Amino acid sequence: MAEAADFQGTSASPARRWLRRAGALLTGAPLLAGLLQLPVAAPAQAASSDSVSVSLDSLTPSAPTDGDTLTVSGTVTNNGKQAVTDAHVGLRVGPQLTTRSDIDSVARHSDDPQGGTGSEVGDKYEEKFDKLAPGVAQHFSISVPVDKLGLDDDGVYEFGVALSGETSARPWPRVLGIQRTFLPWQPSDAGTKTRTTFLWPLLSTVHMTAKTGAGDLQTPEFLNDDLAKELAPGGRLAQMVDLGKDLDVTWVIDPDLLASVDAMAVGNYRLQAADGTSTPGPREHQAVAKQWLAALQKAVAGKEVVALPFADPDLASLAHNGTSVTGSLSHLKDATDVAATTVKTVLHVTPTTDFAWPVDGAVDRSIMKVATSAGADRVIARSDSLQETAGLPYTPSAARPVGGGTTAVVADSRLSTAFEGDLTKAGAATLAVQRFLAQSLEVNSQTDKQRSILVAPQRMPTASQAQAMAAAVKALQGGTWTQPQDLTATAKDKPDPAATTRIPPASAYPASLRKQDLPRTAFEQIARTQAKLDNFRVILSDQSRVVTPFGRAINRDMSTSWRGHRGAAEGYRDGVEAWLDELADQVKLIDKSETKLSGRSATIPVTVQNNLVQPVGHLVLRLESTMPTRLEIGGKAYYEQPVEISGGHSQSVKFTTSANANGRVAVIAQLYTEDGRKYGEPVTFDVKVTEVTPTVMLVIGGGVLLLVLAGFRMYTQRKRAAARQPEDDGPDTAAKDPAEPGNPGAPEGRLPQESGSGSGADDPEQPSDPAPDTAPESADPSGTGERVDR
């Protein structure tokens, strides 16, 4: 720049010299750029070839105090291609972290060897390795008195475990790998302790179908046997109970899980097979289920238990896609009503049911409205959804009155998400615990105000996540800056007047969560299934056998556990609806072939079949003529009769018909419920009417006249013959009255009245009359216990 400044005032000769220098520089710029790139690439390559990973598998105690000895153990692994020599693992204490954001920053770069973490504690507290071969892991364990760490003021310190060494390509000592974590330091009780509520969620996926056996026990059918694996020793749910029994936590339980385990404990459950059949569940799983329930009953004794609505319905999906479908909100109310009864029956404790918990604590105005529609006036939200806008220098208490008598209980997002991700490796779990404790201590250090903080972890922690959670809660319980508190107490605590109470709009709902919402079609299918159930239930003598399993299955249709599993959710809903259709079809009309009707009136039977195990009633069978001018049913266009049928039986319902003209008439049989709704499919059949015509009557009358005339002729002929006989026999015989009864001379032509010649009521049918197709039987219906064949 000095040269440029002098350029305008110099003579031509210096100017030319400046131009030559500038041209030389421009000519060499590409070469210089290439030379500059070479040394940049070399260190990067060397760093990748020399990298060593450090895993911090254990740090005890997690929150040390005065007089403790800190023990750090883990492994170092040479990921490079060259052996590392003159290596050692040392401990480093970094600066004190004064904000929660500082903790976040260190966590994001926890394994970056370029960042500094203070100086080593000293060579007395290190572990040496003569050589680290490529691909080989070496274990280390170092113990150091806490007073050697140089911890001064109370607070959170950055803490690192680093491996230093050299390679043949770069033969000088340097840090090749590091793992940073946090060391909370609060050796004595804090002046003000944070009241901390930790939710311990006991939830699972959907396991039971709507199907139950026909016997009195109504043997349930399960989708699979995954629940037994979770309940078995070492399983996820078994560990949740075993770990939680000694913790000061609030249990949050899905009643559907309890109902499923209780059904399994009976020992007669069945497992759904791929071909639509089912197989008996293993008998040994009955003991597993009973043992788990007994352990849970002991674990929750004396603890607060919060019952979610049955099957943990997806409040966000309901709010975004279900409220426009009629009846959707009624399912949430039903799930809430049955929750307390289920928990009390199985666990023998009275739960709290006035809390709603949207997925991930994400709320918007529509979710809040739905969450409180079933009676819950407290909604568990999260601070990354209900974000602070007032610029508070501290984390406010969890309780926030949001209007309408509703309280949002806001969980701290950093603490609540601390145990997400893969924690199967010891190093990852240790880092999660230390980060959680650091954030908790930092919250307490923000202000002298006592606050109530809520921790709401993921709904279904894995076994490894649950172990890390338990380790963190135990450290808090033995720590010096927090004290445990139940969820109800936290919700009732005095809110911070400066904390935000503004519920975000629907547009602020996370897109990643919205993609997992159940679609509107799911709620339309649920509504359709409910309508079919309502139509089916009215005919049953014991509605609970159907209403209870299907009502709970409809609740499961809306479960939060279906998020991310849309295909499985659709398959489950289809299965519930198909099974209901199959059951409802067990009560039906039997198909009927064409019926011939000869004569002006006859009886037509229609058969109703009930293949259910229970009696059905409250049904009406309507028989309707499509041409009432030709054929009437009961004297009009249609006639109805009530139907009641025992389980496993059929009933023949008989209708009186009258014909007015010849021809074929279509007749429709349809079942209705007593409230006028159609039930099942109709049965249509033809009735062929062959009525006696006037021409035929004339023919028959002519034949009768001929018979009468022939009889009269025979009579007169015999009378004349009898009159001639006395003349031949003499006068004595002629004196007797030929018409006197018992007179042996009575004329043979005096015949008694012959059947068929008169019109008496007892006259039999004429041989010329065609036999009727329908039986001349009673029109009364058969009893409910008959087995009637078509």
TrEMBL record:
Coiled coil start-end: none
InterPro entries linked to this entry: DUF6049, Ig-like_fold, TonB_box_CS
Residue ranges of the TM segments: 696-715
Domain of life: Bacteria
Keywords, alphabetical: Membrane, Transmembrane, Transmembrane helix
Region (Disordered): 100-122, 720-790
Bias type Basic and acidic residues, positions: 101-112
A matching Pfam family: DUF6049
UniProt feature, compositional bias: Low complexity: 740-749
Protein name: DUF6049 family protein
